[in-house]
Structures are given as structure tokens and as C-alpha cells.
């Protein structure tokens, strides 16, 4: 029989198998229809006996060794065997019976490879990665990875003793994808890809499309099955799917930005003190709902090796970090918050990735996900690689990843990190360290196209999804629709306002009069984009101090300053975002290594600040004048912004009707202004609905009135005027009807 078989065995393929460089194992291994019947070939190292078992008839066929190097063959005539197992007895007398991995056809078709090569396979994550499936009644895991420059790729894991000789993958030459279905591999199996490079190096890589990972510092991928979770947020989803770009801009949006690992920590000796996603779901939902927030925004939870990166240097783009549980646990987190009426936004990082050996860096031995030229492909300041946005398969990886989080995990939006670093070729680089674009400019034209493509597709497929840009420059049209040559985002973080306003608030109140423009300038461009007013995590780390530390003055003055700061933020056009801990004036600046200082709420001023922010949130959501026209100039009008020497401002916020318009007054000095006159546009009664100087907020109880009456007397070019007592360092709001 060996002589008959020899003519069907390609000696080159066989030698490549022995040398562990064969990237087309299915041409050699598995079942083959030949002239004499069926030829079965398998590779079993250290075997003493190998048997083919016809599952239909239980007939057994003993296989013969071929060249005594681990290859076994048998030639079977008669009716074709359609389903079979291989039983192997090893030299140590252990016996293992498995279905042959090399008896299955590829699950990736021509349409898949065509779309992937063109960057438009928006569900490529359902093809690449590791997926628990059943084929012809056989349950196992289908593995597929893109590694076009690899000489050979094998799946290695606990299920094959990390032996790369046992499961070499088949290369689909048209697209550079390697694939293999391995029967018997179940959810929870730990694995990597062993990649042999063209220059004969051996790499062990985590799966770029894996849905789960080991807990760091371990870094292997873990087979996960995302189809098991049963969602219960149908009410939220039904409501969400009725929304679109225009309706979202008119909704209230008060975001609680949070880092899951340090919001709270256990003190019972558990791993790093981390709460599980399921534990967090209940506590976060209760707290955020009680505080009046509409959404939470999570610092990056895609798998990352280094805690100190806060999730912004990602190695597992399709995997929620194992620090807080399994993928279905994170699904529960989102699901539970939705059931409690809270939206969930995730920080997403398509700008760069770390150089860890097991990650995306030089994935198949060559620059694959990154630009090959260091002047394009590296961030000198961050020590990371930059994605190659000119490569369609890389674009597909990122586009599909955005859709993956929104669809598979029911997220309501993505905040895209470090957009400026993507848009500018010279970002963080010195002259000579970057390459101009084809027009000689500094703009990365590939990134512009990527954003337009991404946001257009998301707008088409998921019109309710909130795509938010953290963009720190004056790039025009960040939130203009992609079809009008904008970048297509729904919102942009207002970094300019944040920087100016914090610089203003840090000043001793006496000097604020000389920096009045830092307070008012943001209204010059407030409608150039759809903005979110942010006081984010970046402002309370690395020596910048917490929000309360930034405030000038003695102890009580700091709290008064912070109250008026938050009041102005909530009244300013734009949606709202405040980082965790700042709602109760955490004294220490934030660190990912420790939990928030919840114990500080035992002190009166901190508890009062928490109550103040809670009241602000509920005030904000109660009156649509604070949010309905955030993106329309009709929503805001100055009444008094010229008294720089007083550091006092007044303005109007308008809603969707002529009823319940709001007058806002902010005093940024500690000086009480008694009988202060403000010109107003409408007659009638102005009812006080908020005063930051209430005793319950830690104030002095000044300026408290039920209402004031406008008199018909021209003042400051307005036809009417009112008189108020304006407490020092205060924020007040009044309701009136035109």
C-alpha cells in the first residue's frame, strides 16, 4: 500500500511539513479522493498506533507509518467515508480520539475575501478570530487570522500542548488569511498563533480578533462565544433605534466619565481589588441614576497589557479586558445600565497600538498593521506604532471594530481618542521626523478618508450611534456630515473651552477681570461644531491636581469657586461630561492604582458638593432650554458680558417653545452684588429655580428669592430690566416665559 500511496504524496509538501513551514497542509493531510478509492493521511508525532474510524459504520482502518517520521496513511476502497474520527495511541499508552481538522472546507468564501481586500467587510470579525461553531454535526472552534507575510501559521494552545506541528493552518492565497477548524476545542480554550516568518523567526501572537484574553500579565487569547448571552434591554433598544443625528442633538446628555478599575476597589485581597463587570453594573447604575446623569463614558476597556495606559494602548481590540470579567459579564454591564435608563459610551483607540511582542506589532514578521516607514508608523512621544490607514485590510479591521462594539455589545456611542494625532502627520514630531502628504501638507489624507468612510457607514447602518471626536485643534468640519466633506462625527469634545476655562478658574478672582476673554471667547465658536463641554480625566492626573485643588482661595472659597464653575459649565451650550470623583470634589488627583476617596463624603463640604452636582443634573434635565438648542444659535444670547471688572455675566438659554426660557447669572468674584441691574428682553416674572449659594450646597444663603419682576425700562440696550442680589462666587438660574 505504501507504494500505491507514494505517488499521491508531494515530497516537497511533505518535507515542508516536517520542517514546519507548510502553509497548505490540507493538500497533504486529510481525506483525498484517488484512483484506488480514498486516501487518508494524518500527522501524529510519538504515536504507536493510529486508526481511522468510519462514524457511520464503526468500521476501523489501521493506518501505516510513512517514512517513520510521524506521517500515517491508509487507502480505503469501496463506498466513500463521509465522516470519520482518528484514534491515536501514543508511546505513553494514552489514547485520544478526534475528528480530523483537515477534513473540513474553508468557511471563508470568495465574497468574504473580496470585501476584506477592499476594506468593506463590515462584519469581518464574524469570520476572523476564534468562533465556536458546529459543522456537519461536529462541534469545535474555527480559527482564522490575517498574516499575509507569514511563511506558516499554526494554532497552538493547551488543547495541543502548545505544539505547532499539530495544527498548521491553511493559507487562502487570495487574501493572506490562514484558517483551520479544530473539532473539540470549546469555549474557554487558551490559544495563540505561532507564526514562522519569511526569515525563519518564530513568533507567538495573540489573536487580533479574539473576543477574550487571559488576565495580565498573561497574554494568550481565550476562545469565547458571544452568542450565549441573552439581552434584556429591548425597551432601550427599541427607543434607541428611533433616534438619528438630528434628534440626538436635541437631547439632554450629561456624561459621567469613569475608569472601571478605580471607581471602587475591594479591600478583601481579591486580584487588584477589581470589581466584576456584574458587580459594577448594579452599583454604577444605582449611583449614576441617582445622581441624574444620562450616560456613562468608560475609559478604554478593550484588552491592554499595562494598567497605567488606562486602556489607551490596546492589544485586544475585540476583547473586553479580563480584569473585570468575561465578555458576557461586560454585556451584562451594558444591558443592566440600559434597563436602568443609562446610556453607555466607550472610549475607542484607532490612533495607535503598543509594541508588545505578542500584539499587533510586526504581526507576521513585517509591518502589517503599522506603516513600514518609522516617520509615518511611529509616535516618538508615546513609543507606539501608528496604524497604516492606506492599507484596506487595516481599515477594515478598524471599521469593523467600531461596528462590533456598537452592535455586539449594544453600546450607544464611541468616543474616538487622539483624533488630532491621527489627522496630522507631524503630530508630536520634530522637523525631519515626518513625511508630508502628496500635496506637501501635514494632513494625513488617508485618515480623513477613513473617518468619512467610518462615520458614513455608521450613520447609514446605525443612525442612533453617537460618534464623538476628542479633537484638540481647530480642524474645520469635525462634526459636519461626511457627505458634505466633513469628518462626520456627531460631537466633538470642546477642548478649547476646557483649557481656557480652567486657566480662568485657577486665577485669583482679582485677576479674572484681566482675563475675561478666557470666560467668554468660547461663545464666539460655540456653534462651529456640535460640542460636548468636558472636564475630563486628562485634567486631573500627572500633577495637574483635582478640580477642587485647582480652585483658588481658602477652604470654603475653593468649594464656592467649584460650584460656580460647574454651574457655568452646565448652563453653557453643549452637552456635558464630568470625570468621576470630581462630583464630590475628590481632593487627591486621580490614579488608576487606587479607588476613589469615597470616605471623604463623611466631610460636610464634599457631601454638599455631591448634592450640588446631583441637583445640577436634575435641573439640567428638567428644562430643555439647557440642551434642546445646544447646536443652534437661537439657544443662547448674551445679556451682560462686558463687565469684565466685575467678572459677572448673564445670558439667556432658549428651549423648544417660548415657555420656560432661562436667565443665567454667574458671579466669578467673592463680592456680593446687591441690587444688581440686568437688562432683559422680555417682561414678566423671573422665577428663581436654582441658587448655588444655598446652605444645603455649602453656601451662605444669599440671593435667595422666589421671583423678581421685570420693569419696562431700557437698560444696557435691552427694553426691560430686573434687579437682583447676586451672591459672590455664585451661579443662579431663573425661569421666565416670553
UniProtKB/TrEMBL annotation:
Q: In which pathway does it act?
A: Glycan biosynthesis; glycogen biosynthesis
- Give its E.C. classification number: 2.4.1.18
- Keyword Glycosyltransferase belongs to the record: yes
Gene3D superfamilies on file: Glycosidases, Golgi alpha-mannosidase II, Immunoglobulins
Q: How does this protein assemble? A: Monomer.
Catalysed reaction(s) here are:
Transfers a segment of a (1->4)-alpha-D-glucan chain to a primary hydroxy group in a similar glucan chain
Q: Which gene encodes it?
A: glgB
This chain's protein is named 1,4-alpha-glucan branching enzyme GlgB
- Species this protein is from: Anaerosporobacter mobilis DSM 15930
- Residues of the Glycosyl hydrolase family 13 catalytic domain: 268-620
Amino acid at each position: 500500500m505504501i507504494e500505491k500511496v507514494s505517488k499521491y504524496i508531494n515530497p516537497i509538501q511533505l518535507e515542508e511539513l516536517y520542517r514546519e513551514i507548510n502553509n497548505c497542509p490540507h493538500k497533504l493531510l486529510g481525506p483525498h479522493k484517488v484512483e484506488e478509492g480514498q486516501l487518508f493521511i494524518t500527522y501524529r508525532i510519538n504515536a504507536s498506533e493510529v486508526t481511522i474510524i468510519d462514524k457511520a459504520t464503526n468500521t476501523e482502518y489501521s493506518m501505516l507509518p510513512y517514512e517513520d517520521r510521524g506521517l500515517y496513511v491508509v487507502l480505503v476502497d469501496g463506498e466513500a467515508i463521509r465522516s470519520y474520527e482518528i484514534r491515536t495511541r501514543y508511546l505513553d499508552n494514552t489514547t485520544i480520539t478526534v475528528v480530523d481538522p483537515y477534513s473540513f472546507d474553508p468557511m471563508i468564501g470568495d465574497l468574504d475575501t473580496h470585501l476584506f481586500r477592499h476594506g468593506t467587510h463590515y462584519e469581518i470579525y464574524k469570520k476572523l478570530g476564534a468562533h465556536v461553531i458546529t459543522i456537519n454535526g461536529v462541534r469545535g472552534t474555527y480559527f482564522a487570522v490575517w498574516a499575509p507575510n507569514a511563511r506558516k501559521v499554526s494554532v497552538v494552545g493547551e488543547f495541543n500542548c502548545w505544539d505547532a506541528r499539530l495544527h498548521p493552518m491553511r493559507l487562502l492565497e487570495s487574501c493572506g488569511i490562514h484558517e483551520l477548524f479544530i473539532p473539540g476545542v470549546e469555549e474557554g480554550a487558551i490559544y495563540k498563533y505561532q507564526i514562522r516568518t519569511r526569515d525563519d523567526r518564530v513568533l507567538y501572537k495573540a489573536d487580533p480578533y479574539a473576543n477574550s484574553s487571559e488576565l495580565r500579565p498573561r497574554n494568550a487569547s481565550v476562545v469565547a462565544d458571544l452568542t450565549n448571552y441573552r439581552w434584556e434591554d429591548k425597551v432601550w433598544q427599541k427607543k434607541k433605534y428611533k433616534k438619528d443625528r438630528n434628534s440626538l442633538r436635541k437631547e439632554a446628555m450629561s456624561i459621567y466619565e469613569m475608569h472601571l478599575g478605580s471607581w471602587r476597589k475591594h479591600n478583601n485581597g481579591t486580584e487588584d481589588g477589581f470589581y466584576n463587570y456584574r458587580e459594577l453594573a448594579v452599583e454604577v447604575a444605582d449611583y449614576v441614576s441617582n445622581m441624574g446623569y444620562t450616560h456613562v463614558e468608560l475609559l478604554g476597556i478593550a484588552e491592554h497589557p499595562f494598567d497605567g495606559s488606562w486602556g489607551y494602548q490596546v492589544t485586544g481590540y475585540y476583547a473586553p479586558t479580563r480584569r473585570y470579567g468575561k465578555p458576557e459579564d461586560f454585556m451584562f454591564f451594558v444591558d443592566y445600565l440600559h434597563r436602568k435608563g443609562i446610556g453607555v459610551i466607550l472610549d475607542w483607540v484607532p490612533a495607535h497600538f503598543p509594541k508588545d511582542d505578542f500584539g499587533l506589532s510586526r504581526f507576521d514578521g513585517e509591518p502589517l498593521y503599522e506603516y513600514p516607514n518609522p516617520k509615518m508608523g511611529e509616535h516618538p512621544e508615546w513609543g507606539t506604532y501608528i496604524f497604516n490607514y492606506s492599507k484596506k485590510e487595516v481599515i477594515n479591521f478598524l471599521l469593523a471594530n467600531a461596528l462590533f462594539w456598537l452592535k455586539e455589545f449594544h453600546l450607544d456611542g464611541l468616543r474616538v481618542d487622539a483624533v488630532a494625532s491621527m489627522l496630522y502627520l507631524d503630530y508630536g514630531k520634530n522637523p525631519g521626523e515626518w513625511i508630508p502628504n502628496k500635496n506637501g501638507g501635514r494632513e494625513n489624507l488617508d485618515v480623513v478618508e477613513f473617518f468619512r468612510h467610518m462615520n458614513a457607514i455608521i450613520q447609514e447602518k446605525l443612525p442612533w450611534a453617537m460618534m464623538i471626536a476628542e479633537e484638540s485643534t481647530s480642524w474645520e468640519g469635525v462634526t459636519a456630515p461626511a457627505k458634505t466633506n466633513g469628518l462626520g462625527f456627531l460631537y466633538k469634545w470642546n477642548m478649547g473651552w476646557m483649557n481656557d476655562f480652567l486657566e480662568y478658574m485657577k486665577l485669583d478672582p482679582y485677576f479674572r477681570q484681566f482675563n475675561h476673554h478666557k470666560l467668554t471667547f468660547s461663545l464666539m465658536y460655540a456653534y462651529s461644531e456640535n460640542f460636548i463641554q468636558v472636564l475630563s480625566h486628562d485634567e486631573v492626573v500627572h500633577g495637574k491636581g483635582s478640580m477642587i485643588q485647582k480652585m483658588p482661595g481658602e477652604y470654603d472659597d475653593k468649594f464656592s469657586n467649584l460650584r460656580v464653575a460647574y454651574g457655568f459649565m452646565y448652563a453653557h451650550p453643549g452637552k456635558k461630561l464630568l470625570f468621576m470623583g470630581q462630583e464630590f470634589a475628590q481632593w487627591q488627583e486621580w490614579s488608576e492604582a487606587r479607588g476613589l476617596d469615597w470616605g471623604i463624603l463623611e466631610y460636610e463640604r464634599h457631601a454638599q458638593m455631591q448634592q450640588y452636582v446631583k441637583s445640577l443634573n436634575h435641573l439640567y434635565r428638567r428644562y430643555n432650554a439647557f440642551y434642546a438648542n445646544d447646536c443652534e444659535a437661537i439657544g443662547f444670547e448674551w445679556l451682560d458680558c462686558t463687565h469684565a471688572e466685575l467678572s459677572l455675566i448673564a445670558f439667556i438659554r432658549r428651549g423648544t417653545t417660548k415657555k420656560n426660557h432661562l436667565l443665567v447669572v454667574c458671579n466669578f468674584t467673592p463680592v456680593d452684588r446687591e441690587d444688581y441691574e440686568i437688562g432683559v428682553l422680555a417682561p414678566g416674572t423671573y422665577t428663581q429655580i436654582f441658587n448655588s449659594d444655598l446652605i444645603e450646597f455649602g453656601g451662605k444663603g444669599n440671593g435667595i428669592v422666589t421671583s423678581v419682576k421685570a420693569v419696562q425700562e431700557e437698560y444696557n440696550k435691552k427694553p426691560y430690566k430686573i434687579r437682583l442680589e447676586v451672591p459672590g462666587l455664585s451661579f443662579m438660574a431663573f425661569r421666565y416665559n416670553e
